[in-house]
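Researcher: I'm preparing a figure for a lab meeting and need a structural model of a single chain. I don't have an experimental structure, so a prediction will have to do for now. The sequence is pasted below. Please return the structure as tokens so I can convert it later.
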Amino acid sequence: MHSLPNIEKSGFHRGQYVGYGAGKVWRIRKTNSTYGNWIAQACKPASPEADPLITNIYAFRLEQMAEKLAALEAK
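Model: Understood. Here is the structure written out token by token.
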């Protein structure tokens, strides 16, 4: 895996990743959805200003997931 600034391997769940963006911690895992190969689900808000409506993000590659999480920070 490339070095992604806002995604790291999970220390507790094999094959899963942890992402950071939009003031939240995201659990990233494989999925067989038509929306993408990876799904990021919001675990808990890291800040009180986090948007509660954004709960799932889909992407076909982890690099795309990192970009989507970074784009949430910019909003």
